[in-house]
TrEMBL record:
Record's keyword terms, sorted: Acyltransferase, Transferase
Pfam assignment, any one: Acetyltransf_1
Domain of life: Bacteria
Coiled coil: none
GO terms of molecular function: N-acetyltransferase activity
Gene3D superfamilies xrefs: 3.40.630.30
Name this protein carries in UniProt: N-acetyltransferase domain-containing protein
Species name: Agathobacter rectalis (strain ATCC 33656 / DSM 3377 / JCM 17463 / KCTC 5835 / VPI 0990)
Domain N-acetyltransferase stretches: 1-157
């Protein structure tokens, strides 16, 4: 397996994997997510691939087929004046193809992202997990992540 930055040729495969992630979220929150859609379009992915502040890392097999990805964003913190300034690498989305889960691809991808964050001078790696996505929560806890903050909601409908 080779972990590298995404290329434009990866876009069709990224779309397939984005569909898998969307379905997980739609199963958890059908009131918010629309099945059969994706978070990004082909055009948006093409722009993101060129943007060094939004690196997309892919785990490719020996045939250079993308088996998983990590969409990342470099963010400057803080959100307010009462915090020390620092750089954070936010994982916007991480996915491993359902057919290849359990082969430690996600672990290798996450370790790669952590090393990239160190190389970029980041203080931390952060991400969000939807409540109800217990397999993702368990995976990230296994990788050493701890809850930083919780966002709560009250649905009015």
């Amino acid at each position: 397996m080779n972990i590298r930055r995404a290329h434009e040729k990866d876009i069709p495969r990224l779309i397939e994997l984005l569909e898998q992630v969307l379905q997980i979220h739609a199963d958890i929150r059908p009131d918010i997510f629309i099945p059969g859609t994706t978070k990004y379009t082909n055009e948006e992915l093409a722009e993101m691939i060129k943007d060094d502040t939004k690196p997309i890392y892919v785990a490719a097999d020996d045939d250079d087929i993308c088996m998983g990805y990590a969409f990342c964003q470099i963010r400057q913190q803080p959100f307010s004046n009462n915090m020390v300034p620092f750089t954070s690498l936010f994982i916007d989305d991480l996915c491993v193809d359902a057919k290849t889960r359990g082969q430690h691809i996600g672990e290798q991808l996450f370790e790669y992202v952590k090393n990239e964050a160190k190389h970029l001078g980041c203080y931390e790696v952060t991400l969000n997990v939807w409540s109800g996505n217990t397999s993702a929560e368990k995976f990230y806890e296994k990788m050493g992540l701890k809850t930083k903050e919780r966002q709560m909601e009250y649905i009015l409908m």
